[in-house]
Amino acid sequence: MKNLGLRNKIIEYSLKLNSTNLSPLRSGNISLRAKEDDKDGYLITPSGKKYDTLKPENIVFMGLNEEANNNDSGNKPSSEWRFHRDIYLNKNDAQAIVHAHSPHATAVSSHGKSIPPFHYMIALAGGEDIKCAEYATFGTRELSKNILKALKNRKACLIANHGQIAFEENLPKAFELAEEVENISLQYIT
């Protein structure tokens, strides 16, 4: 199996989404930039599978120029494959992405407002505030465009009525950034 180590790393961190309560059950998704058969792309968690049942063959490879319906692995990629792809296409430093429906970030995102510079740790996201992407239906081009706009000069943002997304140079750092966004969100609302 190609990229077995990367597939196992995605499973490891998907399980951490659950164990840390960053995203319960099937919610949220994780991807890693990858190459298969000389094709640039990314590996992403599948749609609708509980993380504790994931096997390496369930992790879906998507080419950077592919639409989800062109994938023939037998597994459907996360319904959010589009914003993962678009972040990889537009952010060269993005090597790993964590999208979480974490409770506090989701609560803050339901107000559709950015988190202001109330704490110096906000700078970890890459700016003076943590932007909130405007609402759009999950999986749509519109949502992807809104997320890219909110990620301008940043590595993390909230997604209105949805949760948060973070990217970094590797999966441990992306996961840690998502945890920081959740913690900042908790501090902001308490």
Task: Tell me about this structure.
The radius of gyration is 15 Å and the shape is globular. The chain has helices at residues 4-19, 81-90, 103-109, 141-150, 171-189, and strands at residues 29-36, 39-44, 60-63, 96-100, 132-133, 156-159, 163-168. By secondary structure, the chain is an alpha+beta fold. The N and C termini lie far apart (47 Å). The chain has a seven-stranded mixed β-sheet with strand order 3-2-1-4-7-6-5, sandwiched between helices. Helix 2 packs across helix 4 (141-150) and helix 3 packs across helix 5. It contains five helices and seven strands; from the N terminus they run H-E-E-E-H-E-H-E-H-E-E-H.
Please bin the fraction of helical residues.
Answer: 25-40%
Report how far apart the termini are: 47 Å
Radius of gyration: 15 Å
Strand line-up in the sheet with most strands = 3-2-1-4-7-6-5
**Beta-strand percentage?**
15-25%
The description of the largest β-sheet is:
7 strands, mixed
Mean pLDDT: 94
Question: How many β-strand runs?
Answer: 7
